[in-house]
């Protein structure tokens, strides 16, 4: 009987702790489960010529306590990395763009911070002031990332325009990890 009570207390404590995690923390924990893995994706909305030049691969390459870096490859183009930073129950999304020699592109580090803790399966990032100052036309940009057990999606919508972009990645089928993104040292 004592063992049964002990098991019940442990289960109840773990259940309460899981319920106390914010949407942002649950999202973060889900994403961290994919550290070191790469997945192939496809554009499902807003196909542009830039994304027709080879396989689309995301690689959850680097996971530190407060930062997750996800290079996004388009064929041989290794210029893009999504950088997510977790702080104060919010998540910041930045886009790190590099040239082949590793130097920063002139348009880089744009993105936004979630306005609340979000939900376990979705985080929404409206354009921040740094983005608006750099790219005034991006003032209406809203990015969002979704994740569940089968799918990761990266999305962009420019409010007030027809611009929309979605790329989805199958999380049930890891692929070979690609070379390092431009600017990274192995």
Automatic annotation (TrEMBL):
<protein>
    <recommendedName>
        <fullName>Secreted protein</fullName>
    </recommendedName>
</protein>
<feature type="signal peptide">
    <location>
        <begin position="1"/>
        <end position="18"/>
    </location>
</feature>
<keyword id="KW-0732">Signal</keyword>
């Amino acid at each position: 009987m004592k063992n049964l009570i002990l098991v019940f207390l442990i289960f109840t404590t773990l259940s309460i702790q899981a319920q106390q995690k914010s949407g942002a923390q649950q999202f973060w924990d889900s994403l961290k489960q994919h550290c070191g893995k790469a997945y192939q994706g496809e554009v499902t909305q807003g196909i542009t010529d830039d994304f027709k030049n080879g396989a689309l691969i995301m690689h959850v390459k680097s996971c530190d306590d407060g930062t997750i870096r996800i290079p996004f490859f388009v064929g041989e183009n290794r210029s893009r990395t999504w950088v997510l930073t977790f702080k104060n129950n919010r998540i910041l999304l930045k886009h790190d763009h590099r040239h082949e020699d590793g130097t920063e592109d002139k348009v880089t580090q744009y993105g936004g911070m979630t306005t609340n803790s979000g939900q376990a399966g979705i985080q929404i990032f409206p354009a921040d002031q740094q983005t608006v100052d750099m790219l005034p036309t991006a003032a209406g940009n809203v990015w969002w990332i979704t994740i569940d057990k089968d799918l990761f999606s990266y999305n962009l919508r420019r409010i007030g325009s027809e611009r929309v972009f979605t790329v989805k990645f199958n999380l049930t089928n890891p692929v070979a990890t690609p070379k390092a993104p431009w600017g990274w040292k192995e």
